[in-house]
Each structure stands twice: as structure tokens, then as C-alpha cells.
Automatic annotation (TrEMBL):
Protein name stated in the entry: Aquaporin-6
Compartments reported by the entry: Cell membrane
Annotated TM spans: 12-37, 49-67, 97-118, 138-158, 170-189, 209-233
CDD domains, per the entry: MIP
């Protein structure tokens, strides 16, 4: 009996580790690709400066691409603001949210470093670091980033909500990113994503008014989560359920419920199978 429980515990730990590690790699990969292609479109080449439309379309396509590739693996957050919004909406645990943000920042840094390495010195300049235009005040910049991120997060929730009509999250989220860039580039270069701003900034060492690209998007994400999950489409989660999700207990229970009938009927062959699963993980 005790060996059966130990085997079940090992199986659950292995499954959780496999799922989480795959999700973290997906966030790392998606954010790195997003930064590489998106920021790459904003590089100022001597023979041809990028247009606003070019940058918006590239960020649109890059977003659609990474969402399509990693949506089933991790939810395709690719953005600390989106992860925070899901945390506030009780759709992700705190430990997973922290791990997601770390993976996103690491991915953004690697993506920016790769872009820096393959770009000739004449086109590198500040590597697309977000800056506030001279005629825009810091409060205006924060407000713009807040609104841009708010609409992005609302689109993320609407396109991934199982209660809504099924649609393509990749297309909808990509379109919201393009909309944000079409107006936001004139104000702040358009971040909407702290990881997008962090990657290039850490590679070139330029953190002037960098705080704006955290405060604005994160505030907008929280407001969007509150609006969507508590006003537009409130759910029925109890306080106990929300606490269970926050601490990660709900995720463990969900995994435990995958094969409930096998708890009492585990054989020695089942134990060997679970052991092999652990070794693979």
C-alpha cells in the first residue's frame, strides 16, 4: 500500500515537472523569437528606415507565429503583463507565474543578444530600445502604455476564454498587437510588454525611463483582468478555489484526477511503468 502511494506521488511529481518544464521552455522560446523578429523590424538601416506600418505588421506576424506555436504548451503568454493578468484572474498559480516571468525575461534577453550579434554595427544603434518621445511627458507615456496593454490583455482573455465562441487566438492577439503599434510607436515606440523592453535594454545597457515600460503595461494588465473577469464575464470561483489556484494546489488536484480509478488497482507492473516515466522526465 505504501509503495503504491509512493509510486503515485512520484508519477504526479514527474508529470508536473514535465508539464511545467515544457511550458517554461515554450515561454522562453516564444519570447525570444518575438523579440528577435519584432525588434529586428525596428532597426534603423542606413539605406532604408523602417516605416510604422512595417513594424506593426512584423510584430503582428511575430505574435501570431509564437502564439500558434506555443499556445497549447504554455498558454503563449510571452509577456509578464499577460501573466500578471492571468494571476489576478485566478487562472494561474503564483509559483508558475513567477517562473513564467523569469523564462520570458531570459528569452527576451537571449533573443535581443542574438539579434545584436547578427546585426552589423551600422544598424545596431540602440537595438530598438523603447524611449519616450521628446514631446511626450512621462505621465502621458505611462497612460499610453496602460491603454495599449489594456486592450491587448482584453483580447487575450476574449480569444482564449472557453466560454466564448471559439476563434483563432493567434490572429486576434496578433491584430491587437498591430493596433497598439500603429499608434503607440509615435509615443513610446510601443512596448505593451516589459520583456520586449527589458531584452534590448539589458543588452545595450540603456535603462532611461525603463520603469515606464513596467508600470504602464502591468497596471493596464491588472485593470484589464479586473474588467474582464469581474465585470464583463465574471466567473463563479469561490475564495477557497482562488486560493487553491494561487498556491498551485488546484493544479496538483487536477493532475491527481487524471486516472482516479487506478489508485486502488495499481500492480507491480504499474509501478515499473511509473518509474520509467520518472526516468524519462
Amino acid at each position: 500500500m505504501e509503495s503504491g502511494r509512493c509510486s503515485l506521488a512520484r508519477m504526479l511529481v514527474c508529470r508536473l515537472w514535465t508539464t511545467v518544464s515544457k511550458a517554461l521552455f515554450a515561454e522562453f522560446l516564444a519570447t525570444g523569437l518575438y523579440v528577435f523578429f519584432g525588434v529586428g523590424s525596428a532597426l534603423r538601416w542606413p539605406l532604408g528606415l523602417p516605416s510604422v506600418l512595417q513594424i506593426a505588421i512584423t510584430f503582428n506576424l511575430a505574435t501570431a507565429m509564437v502564439v500558434q506555436v506555443t499556445w497549447k504548451a504554455s498558454g503563449a503568454h510571452v509577456n509578464p503583463a499577460v501573466t500578471l493578468a492571468f494571476l489576478v484572474g485566478s487562472q494561474i498559480s503564483l509559483p508558475r507565474a513567477v517562473a513564467y516571468v523569469a523564462a520570458q525575461l531570459a528569452g527576451a534577453t537571449v533573443g535581443a543578444a542574438l539579434l545584436y550579434g547578427v546585426t552589423p554595427g551600422e544598424a545596431r544603434e540602440t537595438l530598438g530600445v523603447n524611449v519616450v518621445r521628446n514631446s511626450v511627458s512621462t505621465s502621458q507615456a505611462v497612460a499610453v502604455e496602460l491603454v495599449l496593454t489594456l486592450q491587448l490583455v482584453l483580447c487575450v482573455f476574449a480569444s482564449t476564454d472557453s466560454r466564448q465562441t471559439s476563434a483563432s487566438p493567434a490572429a486576434i492577439i496578433g491584430a491587437s498587437v498591430a493596433v497598439g503599434h500603429l499608434i503607440g510607436i509615435y509615443f513610446t515606440g510601443c512596448s505593451m510588454n516589459p520583456a520586449r523592453s527589458f531584452g534590448p535594454a539589458i543588452i545595450v545597457g540603456k535603462f532611461t525611463v525603463h520603469w515606464i515600460f513596467w508600470v504602464g503595461p502591468l497596471t493596464g494588465a491588472v485593470l484589464a483582468s479586473l474588467i474582464y473577469n469581474f465585470i464583463l464575464f465574471p466567473d463563479t470561483k469561490t475564495l477557497a478555489q482562488r486560493l487553491a489556484i494561487l498556491t498551485g494546489t488546484a493544479e496538483v488536484e487536477k493532475v491527481e484526477g487524471v486516472e482516479p480509478q487506478k489508485k486502488e488497482s495499481q500492480s507491480s507492473s504499474g509501478d515499473m511503468e511509473m518509474e520509467s516515466v520518472c526516468q524519462v522526465a
